[in-house]
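Reading a protein record of the kind used here takes little practice once its layout is understood. The reader may check this reading against the record printed directly beneath this paragraph.
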Amino acid sequence: MSPLNISLADLIARLDEDLPDAGDLARISEAQLRNRTLSDIGDQLVDHYVSKAKAAGASWTEIGDAIGVTKQAAQQRHTPTPFDRFTKLNRHSIVLSQEAARARKHDTIGTEHLLLGLLGEPRGGAYRVLVAKAGSEQKIRDAVEAALPPAARKAPRGHIPFRPEATEAIGQASRASAELGHDWVGTEHTLLGLIRTRQSPAAQILRDLGFTADGLYETVKAEVLA
């Protein structure tokens, strides 16, 4: 029995329910996307408890033994990353941005994919700010889709890296959080990071929708205090 009470039959039933009219090949593609998501979430689960163990004084040798790898492998895999202070919702938006790139057969993750990731997490502050200003989620999605590069012929395999401007936006998100005096990086901070990466596709999309960097900063500040 699975420790999460999630069976293969449950996963199959859910996919079939979500794609009732899809053919076998389309279901393979969707199954692979969900496999990636489950893998990413599992990695985040392990990272969470590794961080707790390190804070409690565990050595990398002890953590490696608990995972079943060498000390070096554990340290390399679980050293701090730019996402350490990201909230659960914001980490999920990053996973969704990876899915967005993979679904469109893009071999890199750009700021437009990050924006799609924020739209995929309606519980986040960024979603509320975006929809309140733009009027509808679909309006934003249409703008993003129009800016996306064409799909490649083959889906990428393995890890999909961030493009330089996406990496910059993630760094800008952390800086925005620090400016606001927050000890977390939420979806609202990632939204600020996107518009502050001025030459990126996402920044242009946001400007076209009527957002400005200063106005968005004040909106996020008010949203967090509300």
